[in-house]
Amino acid sequence: MGQGGQARRRKGLGWIGLAALWLGMGLRFYRLEAQSLWYDEGTSARLSEGPLRHILESAAQDIHPPLYYVLLHGWADLAGRSEFSLRAFSALTGVLLIAAVGNLTARLFNREAGRLAMLLIAIHPLAIYYAQEVRMYTLLGLWAALHSIFWLTWRRRPRPGRALGLLLTGAAGWYTHYVFPAIPAAHLLSMLIDSGHGSSRRLLRWMGLQAWIGLAVLPWAPVALTQLRQWPAPAPVPPAEALRAILRALSAGITLPPEVPSGIVALPLIGVSLGLIRGIVDRAAFPESKPRGSWIALMLMAGPIGLVLGRGAYREANLKFFMAALPAFIALWAAGLERIQWLLRKRGGRWGGRLGLALALGLMLGPLGISMWALYFDPRFSRDDYRGLARMLAVGIRPGDGILLYAPGQVDVFTYYWPQAPLLPAPLRRPPPPEEIQETLAPALRGRNRLFVLWYGEREADPEGRVETWLDTHAFRAEERWVGRIRFAVYGLGEPDPHPAPGVQFGEAIQVDGYGITPSPLHPGDVLRVMIRWRVRAPLSTAYKVFVHVQGPDGRPVAQTDREPLGWRRPTTTWRPGEVLEDRYGVWLPPTLAPGRYPVLIGFYMPDGQRLPVFRHGQRIGEAWEIGIIEVR
Asked: pLDDT tens, 141-150?
């Protein structure tokens, strides 16, 4: 029996298919709750709460359709709302995707290619990554594969059940993600290319089915149009660069370390290329019509890519959209591998084909293995640790402290871990006007001692840094560090006691015109607040940094702050003679700091570490000025 006949026969999965399902399930549930939920996952968890009406209303304020949230709501009612339970919905969807990709590939090519496709997607890092995320992208891939399966079966022999499957998966795809329409668009292009007997009649009937899908989606259409208009417009990326990133993601996922040479991605692409070539030389791949399985798979893969690039919606964060293209990419890859096996079997017999396939798999799966290891164990690809931040702050929070989450969606994920967190209101408009910042933050910070800020996406929401500038003007930034893509900052609040000009000068150009420092006593965990007014006496050609050190008994700092003046916004090279600049620094005292008296030193240093000399009343006193001594109790 020819290959086309094998593709039409209903046979079991075989040991490769069964092994792929079990392997894929294990990989999708492995370390499922090892990492924290991140920003977008918190949005999914929050939107899926409450009754159906609430979900629909909330989804209308989001940028995605509501079906995933509705299904997640039903799943959570059964399985619970733990991290594991919420992610398990995507993990199980990912297992279904393995079977669907195998079925799709078998229909496009043959049963052997279908089983290889199941193996490939079972271990594919892109598929695993989004099968471990509380988002809709694995579901998008599943609808893309199922809709194409029903289209292929209906196209070969129209039956009511197949038409119903086409309708249901089509409507479900539209209600899951706005990239899905690229799939029926690929179907349409295939049918237009097909000029065989009866093709016009099938095309009309298919368009009738699409009209029914359109009616099902019509109630959501006004919301969808509004959401699409509000989608963030990313910075333009050259098409060639975007296409390279997309093919890299489809070949080895988004967790392939950047130091891995790009050439290694060529190995999977060789398999895909062989799958495409197969459509030219093998007429048995899809005998009932002129478009070969390879060509259809190519259009199914190119559809989502063309839609995203054509709309100008590509950015690195949107590589997840190409889960819609992954089933077709895997199908082509598997077809290429199966063709290698067939050719080697023809020349070297049964064992020659098996050994050749094993060699080809070994070479082509190398990038997948590297990327999979990084997915699980490389901290560079870990999700943002809101769980860790919430636990850290919950332990150290005090009365009078406040937490500012600058990005509305952070509230969802942060309160998932800490529902009673003392959150402060944040400006909502993007970018916020100065009057909204003042009216929102000034009363919220009044009477508080410490402020913890989680910055996320502020470069897009507030490109001029207005909120950060306001805080640097009214508070005392003490610490700042990156936690994944979250920038965690600590500020001290309250004005220090003022002091007049002390007759101190740094070098020949910087004079202290007045200062303030937090009065003693302080306690471990407090933020020491220091205010300095710099008077500029001469131009400066070097970008100096300022250090504020709390000096321990051994002469080394027990706490410190180092940065360029005015929150990095006014390098000393921009200072003009005659200017007076008010600069603020905070120093977060360690929670374990022993009681005692500690000198506080301040000074300037060059990029090479050399410090400016310090003078008092014209006499050199060293390379740092002791601004005061604090008592810690």
From this structure: 999 999 999 9
